[in-house]
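[Meeting: bench + compute handoff]

Bench side (C.D.) handed over the final construct sequence. Compute side (W.E.) agreed to return the predicted structure before the next meeting so the bench team could plan truncations. Sequence as handed over:
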Amino acid sequence: MEPYFASIKGGYDKNFTYLIGCNETKQLAIIDCAAFLNEFEPYLKEVKDLGFEKINRVILTHAHHDHIISLQQIYSRFQPEVYVHESELKRIKNFTGIEVNNFIHHQQEIEIGNEKIKALHTPGHQPSNFCFVWRNKIFTGDTLFIEGCGRTNFPESSTLDQLESMKFIANELSDDLEVYPGHDYGSIPVSTVGREKKVNKYLIGLQKNEINEQIVENWIAVRTGKK
C-alpha cells in the first residue's frame, strides 16, 4: 500500500510543511510545523477520513520560529513525539512551552510505522539543521533551497559549515533524489539533487573532481555578500 504524502504551502514566508503517513499502520508524521493551523485543517480532515487518528511525530529541520509556528497547537491537540537537534531544546521551550526529549543525530532512522526517515545533519544556517531522506525524497529545510541555500548571517550561523553541508549534498546524495525545501523561493517548488548541481550556484563546482581553493574562496565570497 502506497504511503500518504502531502505538501502544504503557507506560514509566514512561503514555508512548506510536509505530511508523511504509513497507510498500513496509520502512523503519521509532520516535517516542520510551518503552516498555520487553519492551513493544516483540510489535510487533517483528509487523513482522518483515511483512518489516521492522530499525528504521531513532529520532525523538525530546525527551530526558527517560522518552522515551528503551529507546533504548540499541534502538540496540544495530538501530543506527538517531537524530534529535533538537542541544541534547539531551549528555543522550543521558550517559544512553545514544550520540553523535547527526542534528540536526533546524523544518520539516525526515524520510524513512522513501516516507513523510515533518515536524518542527515547539515549545519550552517544553524548548528541544528537537518535534512531528511524518505524514499526518493529529501526534505532540506533551510539548508538547500531550489536554486539557493539558507543564509548564514544569524549569530549561530557558520558559512564554513554551510559550505561543508553543500559539499556533502553535491557528493554524497543521489542525483535522482527529489528536493523538497523549507520555502518556496525558487522558480519551481520541487527539484532534484541532479538539477540543483547544474543550476544552483551554491552547488556548482563543489563535486570532488571540481573543487579547488579558488572555488572555495568564490563560494564564501558569494555566500557572505562580498561578491
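W.E. noted at the follow-up: Residues 159-172 form the longest helix (14 residues). C.D. will use this when planning the next construct.
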